[in-house]
Design goal:
The chain is 29% helix and 16% strand. By secondary structure, the chain is α/β, with parallel strands linked by helices. The protein has one domain: TIM Barrel (Alpha-Beta Barrel). Bound molecules: flavin mononucleotide.
């Protein structure tokens, strides 16, 4: 098999032009109604030479929000805004999935309707501060969801999946990573429930399974991707045995024949890895996207060894709209400006320069 980083690959019935995925990245630049607008269209269009773009995480309902100015995918204005993004990416020959999230305990009453307390599987307070419109504020202790509240959230995922179809996306990615609500159910450091959604790995996976069942009524399974982060400690996350638990989750996902499994390998901040990702990948027969700290050389090595089918790049795509062209031609990369990662205007968003002669630049 030709596993060149720049060779096309089929994902279900989609043919992606290369194996470079733009990783989902929250940029806090939606409008006051949490809808994407012209600025966001330009940002994604600039990066459309990626084989696949996965959008920034987008809340499935107003209750799912966790940060200022993140986009949603539940209102007409949001669908219209996203339609502009999908049209622009498709016009450049690209493909784009939307990442769906519900932040759960990684939120704050100031961010939620009627100043409600954030919800979680269990009433366990994360360390640190929530990011709110008035600045950082300590996380509160979340309210543990009642068992009979869970179907409402599952239904919100179904609605968001329908809205994503209306907005013209090629598919959806269920964000089950990085300490947001689904991940809070999956990992035993945040799930102390005693009902059918807690205790055993089978039970901790029930919420995710119900979401996958419902969104696959809207989308073909080959248009639904899933993101996991077995050992990312971001957002005060932990698990007593990630190797065993995530091997189990992956084995349960296998028969679903999803578009792909997208794994943030190791810890997002330290990049350290203790889980054996080769074993995890080896046990999974579908398309596997690797992420976290890859550059061109590491990505190509992993592809050649069969450790993954595609590689997602986060910060490199943030700072280099023409990352594909730069890697193809072994060009230097732009330096990322961390001060402008979260929130702001065009600066540090759409003003990263294209390399000379890059095809993407020629169209803009
Ligand atoms: C600014 C920024 C925003 C991010 N937002 C998200 C997000 O919305 N959803 C998600 O799953 N991961 C998010 N991540 C994590 C990235 O998708 C990726 O896993 C991480 O940057 C590691 O990949 P890299 O080493 O290629 O940058 C974000 C990372 C950054 C730097």
């Amino acid at each position: 098999m030709n596993a060149d980083l720049f060779s096309p690959i089929s994902v279900g019935k989609l043919t992606l032009s290369n194996r470079m995925v733009m990783a989902p990245m929250t940029r806090n630049r939606a409008n006051q109604n949490n809808a994407p607008h012209t600025l966001n269209i330009e940002y994604y269009q600039q990066r459309a030479t990626a084989g696949l773009i996965i959008t920034e995480a987008s809340q499935v309902s107003p209750e799912g929000v966790g940060y200022p100015a993140t986009p949603g995918i539940y209102s007409k204005e949001q669908v219209d805004g996203w339609r502009g993004v999908t049209h622009a990416v498709h016009a450049e020959g690209g493909h784009i999935f939307i990442q769906l999230w519900y932040c759960g305990r990684i939120s704050h009453p100031d961010m939620l309707p009627d100043k409600q307390i954030p919800v979680a599987p269990s009433a366990l307070q994360p360390k640190g501060d929530a990011i709110t419109f008035t600045g950082p504020q300590p996380f509160v202790t979340p309210r543990a969801l009642e068992t009979d509240e869970i179907p409402t959230i599952v239904a919100q995922y179904k609605h968001a999946a329908e809205m994503a179809k209306k907005a013209g996306f090629d598919g959806i990615e269920i964000h089950s990573a990085n300490g947001y609500l689904i991940d809070q159910f999956l990992r035993d450091g945040t799930n102390q429930r005693t009902d059918q959604y807690g205790d055993s790995a089978e039970n901790r996976m029930r919420f995710l399974n119900e979401i996958l069942d419902t969104v696959c009524e809207v989308w073909p399974n080959t248009r639904v991707g899933l993101r996991l982060s077995p050992e990312n400690s971001f957002n005060t996350m932990s698990d007593s045995d990630p190797q065993t638990h995530f091997a189990y989750f992956v084995s349960q996902l296998q028969p679903r024949n999803l578009a792909y499994l997208h794994v943030l390998e190791g810890d997002m901040m330290t990049k350290q890895r203790r889980v054996d990702y080769r074993a995890l990948r080896g046990s999974f027969k579908g398309i596997y996207i690797a992420n976290n700290g890859y550059d061109k050389t590491r990505a190509q090595n992993a592809l050649t060894k069969g450790d993954c089918d595609l590689v997602a790049f986060g910060v490199p795509f943030l700072a280099n709209p023409d990352l594909v062209y730069r890697y193809q031609n072994d060009l230097l990369l732009n330096e990322p400006d961390t001060d402008t990662f979260y929130g702001g205007d065009t600066h540090g968003y759409t003003d990263y320069p294209f390399a000379e002669h890059s095809t993407a630049e020629a169209t803009h």
